[in-house]
Amino acid sequence: MKKYIYSDINSQLSSDKTGDFKIEYDGEAVMQSIKNIFATISGERVRNGIGSSLVRYLFQPMTEDTVDAIKNEITNNIKKHEPRIRTINVNVIGDKQKYVYEVTVTITVDRFAQPLRFQTNLRSME
């Protein structure tokens, strides 16, 4: 039996063929934590302080200052809420044609040999 370092219940609350909740392990568990930070607004969870204020940038003009603010918000919140991560590289590109910020987060975790990567789009309301 494989020994895992980290585990967490799948955030979509999907179930496996036995009817139990699916479990995410190791890298998937860490990446799910980052997705939860993205998807949670600061203060939304009363007893759990995770979250970010990314939503406030989605209503601002798509400028380099806004791109830098989004990058800093993501970096600072991951550092604050995810102690398993050793290094973080966040890349944010504003695409005015599609009204999205393309976000790529690459992290390293001491216990894993390979870096982990997460990509998403944040829709701008500009």
Descriptive report:
- The chain has helices at 27-39, 64-81; strands at residues 7-9, 23-25, 85-95, 100-109, 116-123.
- It is of the alpha+beta class.
- The chain has one domain (21-123): Nuclear Transport Factor 2, Chain: A, CATH 3.10.450.
- The strands form two sheets. It has a three-stranded antiparallel beta sheet with strand order 3-4-5, with helices on one face. It has a two-stranded antiparallel sheet with strand order 1-2.
- Strand 3 (85-95) and strand 4 (100-109) form a beta hairpin.
Features:
126 residues, alpha+beta, Nuclear Transport Factor 2, Chain: A, 3-stranded antiparallel β-sheet, two-stranded antiparallel ribbon, 2 helices, 5 strands, 28% strand, globular
The number of helical elements comes to: 2
Low-confidence stretches: none
> Main sheet, how many strands, which sense, barrel?
3 strands, antiparallel
Number of domains: 1
Would you count the extended β strands for me?
Answer: 5
Order of helices and strands: EEHHEEE
Q: Assign the CATH topology.
A: Nuclear Transport Factor 2, Chain: A
Helix fraction bin: 10-25%
Alpha-carbon distance between the two ends: 51 Å
Which class in CATH terms? Alpha Beta
Shape descriptor? globular
Q: What is the architecture at the second tier of CATH?
A: Roll
Strand order of the largest sheet: 3-4-5
Structural class: alpha+beta
* Average residue-wise pLDDT: 86
Strand content: 25-35%
Rg from C-alpha positions? 16 Å
Question: How would you concisely characterize the structure shown here?
Answer:
This protein is an alpha+beta fold. The chain has helices spanning 27-39, 64-81; strands spanning 7-9, 23-25, 85-95, 100-109, 116-123. Strand 3 and strand 4 (100-109) form a beta hairpin.
